[in-house]
Amino acid sequence: METYDLVVIGSGAGLNVLNYGLQMGLKCALVEDTKLGATCLTRGCIPSKVLVHPADLIREAEHASKVGIKFRVEDIDWQMIAERMWSQINESIAMEEGLSNVENLTLFKGVGEFIGEYEMQVKSVKSGEIIGHFKGDKYVLSSGARSLIPPIHGLNEIEFITNENFFGDKFPDKPWESLIIIGGGVIAAEFAHIFSAFGTKVTVVEMLPRLVMTEEPEISEFLERNFKKHMTILVNHKAIRVSSKKKQKSVIVQNVNNGEEMELKAEEIFVAAGRRSNADLLKVENTGVETNDHGWIKTNKYLETAKANIWCFGDANGLYQFRHKANYESDLCANNIFGPDSEKKEVDYSVVPWAIFTSPQIGHVGMTQEEAIERGHEIFVAVKNYSTVAKGFAMGYDNDDIDNGFVKLVIDKSYKLLGAHVVGPHAAILVQPFVYLMNAGYTCDSPEFPARTGPNKLGRSCPEAGSFMPVYKSMVIHPSLNEVAGWAIGNMKPINIKMEHHEHHHEE
Fold this sequence. Notes:
The protein contains 15 helices and 22 strands. It is α/β, with parallel strands linked by helices and about 500 residues long. Mean pLDDT is about 90; it is low at about 440-465 and about 500-508.
């Protein structure tokens, strides 16, 4: 039986660790059951953005009437859009050819499963035949996640869409006439935007009280109001039964509050109800790796599993399922595998940013207001709308518009930034500077924060890592949307801060 120095499961960010091993001359194996490049390249963030951008342009053209310009979308070249998307996905072909010829590397295309201590077999996805059987001294589980399919009656009897088969054999020849999306999270929000912009009649069914539950309630409400201009939104509704007849599919949904049922019909159903772990496919229990109650692989602060010499990161550990987080973990994991024990590094998830590329766009980093209070912080909150700065007005945003985006900052009483949240055009760009700032460990040198923009004297708690003082002290390009983020600090209001009243005693 072959024994490898390093076995990597998954060809997404796991390739970063694999590269370290190959550079060190180790005998390595890579196991991948789908196209190389994994979720981000082949069925997630990269190809989806090739679809999102044309959808964005359509919505921008519609908004242009607010500034005196009327555009008409005369044609949508779906074929061209699809070809550009597939050109990105098909980069996996060149990746596979390249890795197949790398010295000291064996590529197994199939599903890996543990059959003993540090022992694995690989089965062909198509035939189920065993195509590999080996042991590994070290394993890295970057095995990702897959669509969670909810227990809806009849769902296993019909064909439906997930993000996996959408970027596969179920990709439509043209945008569907009508579409029911089951779920209200990130994937659902992005695809609702894409297809509604392309003219599809979209209905979103979400059993929770609001869309994108990871976000501030105000942002969820803002998204829902704007979505309703272009599609039907049913929150507090769950799909309980589906069926298919000829070219139309039916979904029976139930109001979770009063039990009332209604029937929805559409050409297609897209299930985007969350993600589930692939640990069950790996059969990690056979080698001593532990999972939590939801099936995600448990890791400690060093990305080590419960089994020595087996590490895990990325979507597989269920924590912040974003490629940039997996990239961060991959470097840290490589350091902890190949570096001395005295230099092991701990993961830090306190400043994990993300964006939801829907319309309106959403950017997020750090804690929400509710999370900050739950964790014992006394906080200020600062909110500023696009319309209140010159560039926002120039872009056609007025105070009463339902699409008038905003920035919301959550700030500790010491002036440490705890979270930044943006909804509106360029949200991903506007939130990014706060990510840098929160990671900077900046030490402020101002003895006090000026009274005109916040309660006086509280600035004495500086220096404090992650203070907003660099933003306050910086010039902000005018007129630009950066002013929405930079000037939000001027609108700080205490939320749960107990203000101290000082008595002044004067000698007579």
